[in-house]
Amino acid sequence: MKETILLIALTLFMVAIAILLYRVIMGPSMPDRAIALDTIGVNLISAIAIVSILLKTKAFLEAILILGILAFIGTIAFSKYIERGVIVERKGDS
Amino acid sequence: MKTNDVILQFTAKIVFFMIFFYAVHIFFAGHYTPGGGFVGGLVTASAIVLLIIAFDIKTVQSIIPINYIYLVAVGLIIAGATAAFSMIMGKPFFTHYFDYFNLPILGKTSLHTAALFDLGVYLVVVGVTMTIIQTIGEDE
């Protein structure tokens, strides 16, 4: 019973990622694609959590935290590139 | 156009310490749980990259005044010296030692020389990643 519920939730997360992938490919502007990629990262975190419940292990919790950190930094890098046109500034004159 | 990213800079100041201490936790927990020197080094490098993105490369170099190429050399020396120490003691290359010690606060702890080798891996990974990112970022 519990396994069925978890599998249904996992399927729904996969459907959400597929819909977001449509937004990544067909998105009219670049901020649409950046936000869709960030949301895909969050959905992947949830999917990893459900898989770790299904496999009855705690070994994936570190992967969840690291994926959260990397999604955060990647989204910030994307948004800074969209706004400024450069990710790493050489000198702070702003 | 003058832009002001005060929210990003304030967030980066706090999140940097959370990511850095999590990297230290991954490094020390690598013997019994997933993690180790490689992942810890990469997470530390990503914390410094967050500072570089939020501020700029001159500010971060004045905050963390480390030449990362020397960091690679120090890491290689630590890893090589750990491996060569067992040759001096008359054992084969890369023989590791461990024992149990009673530390003042932590209590009974097992200290292993593989942690020293892992420290070398950690320093090399941080140094190589930051050298690559700084070299690409400084290009005019």
From TrEMBL, chain A:
InterPro entries: MrpF/PhaF-like. GO terms for cellular component: plasma membrane. It comes from Ureibacillus xyleni. The chain crosses the membrane at residues 6-22, 34-54, 60-82. It is found in: Cell membrane. Belongs to the CPA3 antiporters (TC 2.A.63) subunit F family. The lineage of its organism: Bacteria, Bacillati, Bacillota, Bacilli, Bacillales. This is Multisubunit sodium/proton antiporter MrpF subunit. Keywords: Antiport, Cell membrane, Ion transport, Membrane, Transmembrane, Transmembrane helix, Transport. It is a multi-pass membrane protein. GO terms for molecular function: sodium:proton antiporter activity. Its main location: membrane. Pfam families: MrpF_PhaF. Signal peptide: none annotated. It comes from the Bacteria.
From TrEMBL, chain B:
GO terms for cellular component: plasma membrane. The chain crosses the membrane at residues 12-32, 38-57, 69-90, 110-133. Keywords: Cell membrane, Membrane, Transmembrane, Transmembrane helix. Its main location: membrane. InterPro entries: CPA3_antiporter_subunitB, MnhB. It is found in: Cell membrane. It comes from the Bacteria. Coiled coil: none annotated. It is a multi-pass membrane protein. Residues 7-131 form the Na+/H+ antiporter MnhB subunit-related protein domain. Belongs to the CPA3 antiporters (TC 2.A.63) subunit B family. This is Multisubunit sodium/proton antiporter MrpB subunit. It comes from Ureibacillus xyleni.
